[in-house]
């Protein structure tokens, strides 16, 4: 799956930018980066904008919450109709309860881990989740360089999923482009987030197609 991140889109033309990746075999998920200027040193958008996006598109919306206190705020994004809501393990107080609440509100539950956060301590927690988001840059900004070291965590998660120990979509986020997507695919990623590689391209739909061709080949 390819999930364009609207972080690199023109925020004054969001509806058009979403349509631009819709195409025939366009975006599988629309990745929406919510930042609160506390968990990360950047501020983007919140629930009102997500509600408008949900009304404007049929693409399943994948909210990536880079915020403090997701235990309190994440549920609203699920109740609004997001397909998947991802919270950071570094920020969540009770990630198991949080996953249960997200699922009860009708969303898939996602757990994100920063590049420096190990996977091993959270394997039991991940039994309650539908998505594992492995960050391949420090969260906060688009257009950063891919950190290949995180592929070890992707491989480990892939092995556990394939052995039936976990049931997760393995998603990667940060620095994914034509040069990096194949190594991520080889490591076992199911869903590729791409911000600048899609929205800095002259034709975003074609950029999505190009990335898809590389991982389907
Ligand atoms: C960064 C965000 C990413 C960002 C990726 O904190 O979580 O989703 O949009 O942008 P690129 O693909 O440009 O690295
Ligand atoms: Zn993201």
Beta strand %: 15-25%
The geometry reads as: globular
CATH fold group: TIM Barrel
N-to-C CA distance: 14 Å
Q: How many helical elements?
A: 9
What's the CATH H-level superfamily name? Aldolase class I
Order of helices and strands: EHEHEHEHEHEHEHEHH
How many structural domains? 1
Rg on CA atoms, Å: 16 Å
Major sheet summary line: 8 strands, parallel
Extended strand count: 8
Topology diagram in text:
Elements: E1 2-4, H1 14-19, E2 30-35, H2 47-56, E3 61-66, H3 70-79, E4 84-88, H4 95-104, E5 108-113, H5 123-126, E6 131-135, H6 151-162, E7 169-173, H7 181-187, E8 191-194, H8 196-199, H9 204-216
Parallel strand pairs: 1-8, 2-3, 3-4, 4-5, 5-6, 6-7, 7-8
Helix pairs in contact: 3-4
Residues 5, 31, 33, 64, 173, 193 line the site of zinc ion.
Tell me what you see in this structure.
The chain is of the alpha/beta class. It has a single domain (about 1-215), classed as TIM Barrel. It is about 35% helix and about 20% strand. The protein is built from 9 helices and 8 strands. The chain has helices at about 15-20, 45-55, 70-80, 95-105, 125, 150-160, 180-185, 195-200, 205-215, and strands at about 1-5, 30-35, 60-65, 85-90, 110-115, 130-135, 170-175, 190-195. The protein has an 8-stranded parallel β-sheet with strand order 1-8-7-6-5-4-3-2. Helix 3 packs parallel to helix 4. It is globular, with a radius of gyration of 16 Å. It starts with a strand and ends with a helix. The mean pLDDT is about 100. The structure holds D-xylitol-5-phosphate and zinc ion. Zinc ion binds near residues 5, 31, 33, 173 and 193.
């Amino acid at each position: 799956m390819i999930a364009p991140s609207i972080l690199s889109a023109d925020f004054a033309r969001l509806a058009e930018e979403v349509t631009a990746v819709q195409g025939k075999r366009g975006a599988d998920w629309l990745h929406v980066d919510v930042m609160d200027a506390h968990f990360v040193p950047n501020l983007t958008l919140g629930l009102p904008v997500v509600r408008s996006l949900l009304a404007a598109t049929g693409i399943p919306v994948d909210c990536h919450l880079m915020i403090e206190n997701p235990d309190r705020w994440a549920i609203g994004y699920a109740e609004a109709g997001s397909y998947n809501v991802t919270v950071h393990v570094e920020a969540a107080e009770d990630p198991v309860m949080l996953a249960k609440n997200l699922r009860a509100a009708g969303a898939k539950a996602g757990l994100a881990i920063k590049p420096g956060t190990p996977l091993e301590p959270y394997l039991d927690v991940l039994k309650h989740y539908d998505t594992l988001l492995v960050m391949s840059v420090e969260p906060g900004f688009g257009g950063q360089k891919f950190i290949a070291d995180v592929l070890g965590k992707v491989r480990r998660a892939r092995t556990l999923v394939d052995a039936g120990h976990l049931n997760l979509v393995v998603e990667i986020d940060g620095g994914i482009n034509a040069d990096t997507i194949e190594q991520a695919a080889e490591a076992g990623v199911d869903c590729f987030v791409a911000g600048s590689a899609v929205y800095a391209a002259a034709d975003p739909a074609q950029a999505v197609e190009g990335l898809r061709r590389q991982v389907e080949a």
